[in-house]
Prior knowledge:
The structure is a single chain. By secondary structure, the chain is of the alpha/beta class. It folds into six domains: about 5-95 and about 230-295, P-loop containing nucleotide triphosphate hydrolases (Rossmann fold, 3-Layer(aba) Sandwich), CATH 3.40.50.300; about 115-205; about 305-345 and about 580-690, Rossmann fold (3-Layer(aba) Sandwich); about 370-560, PCRA, domain 4 (Orthogonal Bundle); about 710-760, no CATH class; about 775-1015, Lambda Exonuclease, Chain A. Strands 16, 17, 18, 19, 20, 21, 22 and 23 form an eight-stranded mixed sheet that branches. Strand 6 (about 235-240), helix 12 and strand 7 (about 260-265) form a beta-alpha-beta unit. The protein is elongated, with a radius of gyration of 37 Å.
Amino acid sequence: MWQGQAAELVAAAESSARSGVWRVTGVAGSGVTSLLVDALTARLGSGAPASSVCVIATSKESGGRLRRVLAERASQLENSRYVAEGTLVRSVHSFAFAIVRAASIRAQKPAPRLITGAEQDAVIRELLLGHAADGRGEWPPEQREALRMVGFARQLRDFLLRAVERGAGPGDVEELGRRYDRPLWVSAGAFLREYEQTMALSGAHSLNASELVTAALEALSLDPGLLTMLQEQWETVMVDDAQHLDPQSARLVSLFLPSAKLGVIAGDPAQSVFRFRGARPEFLTKYPADHEVVLNTSFRHPEDCSVVVAPTASEHALVVANRVRRAHLLHGVPWSDIAVIVRSVRQLAGVRRALLLAGVPVHLDPTDVVLAEQRIVASMMLGVRALTQPLNSAELEELVLGPIGGADPVTLRRLYRGLRQAEMMRGGSRRAVQVLADLVLPTSWRDTPPEERAIEYEDATARLTEREVDVLTRIRAVLDAGFQSRAAGDSVEMILWSLWEATGLSDRLMAASLRGGAAGSQADRDVDAMMSLFDAAGDYVERRPTASIESFVRHIAEQQLPTGSRDRRGVLPDAVRVLTAHAAVGQEWHTVVVAGVQEGTWPTLGETGSLFGQEELVDVLDDGIDPNIPISRSVERLAEERRLFRLATSRATGSLFVTAVDAPDAEDALEPSRFLEELCSERGIEAERVEEQEASIAGTPGGRHDRRLLSTTAIVAELRRVVCDPAERPLRREQAARQLARLARAGVYGADPEEWWGMRGASTREPLQNPRRSVQLSPSRIESTLRCPLRSVLDRLIDDADTPIHMVRGTLAHGFAEAIARGADSDAASALVYEAYAGLLDVPAWQRETALREWDTLIDNLERWLENTRGQFEQVGVEMDMRVSVGTTESGAPLRIKGRMDRLERNNDGELVVVDVKTGSSMPAQKNMGEHAQLSAYQLALSRGVVDGDSVRDPYPGETPEAVGGGVLVYPSATDVGKYTTREQAAKTPEELEELAAMLPGVAAAIRGPALTAIVNDNCDNCRLQSICPAQPTGRMLTNGS
């Protein structure tokens, strides 16, 4: 029950007599909004018509919350049946729109359309790009280069919003710029005029939220009859959170308060945190009110308040997730009554990921979605684009791996492998990615007869598994549906719906959403994103009925701000809210975690809109302050940041938990905010400091039990760690084993040792090769095996969908050298390989010119080496096959060196010299060339074989191998023409060759398996197998059989 002045307000609401304007102020949690709701309920209960009541909230979100509470309270009245022409609660912009719409009806003109911030941002950026392209606009020369930048467009938009919010038009902004010698203001004013003219030419009267309020004031000034009519209609006018109104909105509301029988202005000046958006608290504090109600007692008294400082960002994320899970699991707090509040939007993604990884369902505001950044939307837009234009290889892979294809990377590789094998069987030469594109993309098959397309599909899928065929069929079905819809002339909405319906994702997401949990919250987010996309498509079609699907795709891609789309949820999901401090205004939860309170982030003392002088514009428009007078705003900004922090820490009713990171030695040093010390002093608490790894390794000596992440996976991981650690006490290992057995019997995944990778036996004990079969080793294989047997075997099994460009480069360079050696014209050969390389080069445009220039240099250097060495060498052969016996394996099987030499030369002493051309840039030091295994293997083969035409073979009886004079590595890849590099290996002695031959049986055994040895070497950093290599930290087994 209310007492004192608050009770008088409720009594005044029950009376039909005029009571004037009431100002209600109070601290956070004192019940300001509750008093407003009680007064409004009393007003409706006294029989006042619902259509005579107008409640104004400062934002769409706060208006929605207030509307739900009011509807619930009104339904409990004795006479709860009432009819209203419109909603009782409106945001200030909805209020302004209602006025503008009423004015349009009275003037018999079409109602304006409200555009989103994302749409306005896209229009502004498009106009700026036009200015940059053709030199239009009155921009100062020093700023013209910035016109293409997104940051410039954002600051310009914010500047114009502040001007429009205060009723300043293009001429006003230009005049202020000239008066105070601000060239950018003059340019911005001229741009605002062009923007307004552009929007007028679009055919629809389009207004953004800031322009609505000005438009409403203009409509009322031009039509006094409308103002009188609305004043007579709205006998009760209430404003909640009035401290968030900007001056223009305050002027609009002020027109209706004096005429109201009951007017209420409610809020808390200490929560004024939207100055960066132009809000000022003066309307709340200085409007002449007839009655004052002050609520000084807060009803939010968290029983638990703690501050925790973590040593690293990863530990911090774990601490936050742990606190949230314990609040739900141990204290029974519903997920929906828990919130994690951060300072900035940039922190939301990291917190969301940490919570989802811990199995916590998360809810983000669906109206804050940047559509193009949502993966499900990006995948759908990719599908739409595929209807009219080809996709590059990266986009095609994203289509397969995204929601439409639903494949994982392993399936994609297998799909590519199967398509490539099928293409080779048909005698074709297309790459796997091209085969895939030809099968699924409408741009590739739209002119192909259905019968021919069916045959090609059957041939291509002949070597695919059921899973791979399912992925392929799914993509084809989705794109076929979209293609048929577009061919039928359907609208953008219908084409999009045809694609979506064909994916079958709707039922799948609905099922996941109903199951709840972390997966359910992600499904909710995907559904919200798709609803927003369909809303955007509907609005787009309504504005442009004849627009093409291509223009809609561009429209979505150009939007880089949240769309502010409609939220149709009747019930909020049972999930933890993750939001910024500004979004937490007017809300409360049982458990609140204020996360990431770091110095430099909270407080953020940077100036808003510094390029255009946004704050100076606000000062001159609101207070007449000369913008050229230097004013320090540091104290003012710090005070607002402190108010924002106090607002965030006053949202909890049961438990408040504040976290930060103290990592002064990190790459990006992190320091707890100064506000933490203030909070600890006010609450009489001390900050707890988490020791390194204390939060992640539970049960360690001295570790806090409540630091353990309370999740199934974390507990199973800890028990497995204890069981597998030989250093643990036997009794502790035994107890951990018992608990794992209990969990395994309960069906908890990962508790049963049969499910542990590290405990499983080998899938086979059979060697990779039959020991009795002959072994053939190439010189490069010998070199790679001596370096690392594991990589030598497994690297050959990695199936790349596309041939790497460096391999293409090497193949073409060797082909050029062979052609020259066989008498081809060098200019013609150079032109042919250049054309081939340019055609296969798939790099960004800014790299292409450099890559082609480097190719020309490589070819020139290779030709120079050939010319410069003709006095030193005589060509014996090029691309010569070699197959020479060098002994037997450990099991007695024949052992041969088999390979191909780039070039075989004869020096002036008549000795054979092997030449290997290397197109890479990494080369060994000359001092290490004596140990170069590849050249040594070539020398061994030449020392035991004979040259026979274009090959080297085993000698027949009576034939004697020729003397070998060493080997040469040629590196033509240099930045300058003529700067090729060579590395020479001297001729090996018979003893050295015998020593190498004696090593080869061991080399053959090392790659025969089933066990393969991993050896750490200088090339480990460039190895593709690090994630599975037992010699590397990332590939080491986490469990063992101890």
